[in-house]
Amino acid sequence: MAEHRHFIINSENLFDDIFVLNGNEGHHAARVTHIKRGDLITLIEGNGSAYGAVVDEVVGDRIKGHIIKLMKNYNESYIKIHLGIGLIKGAKLDIVVEKCTELGVHSISVLDLKNSVKKNTKLERLDAISLSAIKQCGRGFKPYICSCNLEDWIDGSSGGKRFVLHNGKNSKPLANLFSSSVKNENSIWLAIGPEGGFSKEELDILMRTGFKSVSLGMRRLRSETAAITSVGLIDQLTIQ
Ligand code: SAH
Question: Which of 117, 123, 134, 221 is in Cβ range 3.0-4.6 Å of 226 for a Cys bridge?
Fold first, then answer.
C-alpha cells in the first residue's frame, strides 16, 4: 500500500493535470497533515479512480500541484458486495457504514423492515461517514448508500449470489460457501435483519426469490456485528 496520504478531490478542482485542494480538504492537508511542496499525495474522487500527484505550492489553506498518474479501481476488490441491512439505531448504523466501507462494501441499502425499531435514516450523515472512511483507508470508490423497502432491494439484486444471514436449521456456514464458484462471482448480495430479526413474511420473500440462508455460527450476533463479519469475511476470502 502507498504510504502517502489520501485526500478527497472534487472534479471541479481538477484542470487537466493540475489540481487544487481548498476548503476543508485544503485546510486538513496544509494545517493538520503539514503537506509541503514536493510531497507525493493520492487524490480520490470517490468514483473508483485515484490520482498520484505532486504538491507544487502551499499557500495558506490552498494547495496546488500536478497529477503524475491515474490509478483505476484503486484498492477496489473485483467482487461487488451489496449489503441490505434492516434499519437499526443511528450510532450502530454509523459503525456499519464506516467499517463496511473500510472492508470494501460496494453498496449499503438500509431496509425498512417490520421489526426495525427506528423509522428514519440520515443518509447525508451516512454518506459523510463513508467519504471520510474511503479517505482514511485509501480506496477509490465511495459506496452507494440508500434507503429502500425490501421488495425494491430484491428487485434490484440481479446477478451474482444472494444470501440471507439467518441462523436457522437449514443455514450453511457462510465461510463454507466460498467454493471456487462463489469466488468467480462478481456480485454478492447479503441481507441482514434489524435488532428484532426478520419477520416470517420477510424471510419467506427472501427465500422465494433465491436468497440462500447462511449462518455465522451458533451465537446470536447484533445486526452490526453480523454486517461487519460477513462483509469482512467475503473481503478477506476474495483478496487476490
Ligand atoms: N431476535 C432476532 C435476532 C436478530 S439478530 C432473531 O432471533 O431473529 C439481527 C440479525 O443479525 C439477524 O436477523 C441476522 O440477519 C443476523 N445474525 C445474527 N446472528 C447471526 C448468526 N449467528 N448467523 C447468521 N446471521 C446472524
Answer: 221
Best residue among 110, 166, 229, 231 to mutate for probing ligand 1, ranked by most atoms within 8 Å of CB: 166
Ligand 1 midpoint to CA 218 (Å): 10
Q: How far apart are CA 113 and CA 119, in angstroms?
A: 9
* Tens-digit pLDDT profile for residues 119-164: 788 999 999 999 999 999 999 999 999 999 999 999 999 888 999 9
Please name the residues in contact with 78: beta carbons below 8 A apart, sequence gap of 6 or more: 186, 238, 240
Is the Cβ atom of 93 under 6 angstroms away from ligand 1? no
Tell me what pLDDT residue 3 has: 61
Residue 193 Cβ contacting ligand 1 at under 6 Å: yes
197 CA to centre of ligand 1 in angstroms: 6
pTM over 0.90: yes
123-137 vs 90-102: helix crossing angle, rounded to 10: 30
Residue for cell digits 510531497? 39
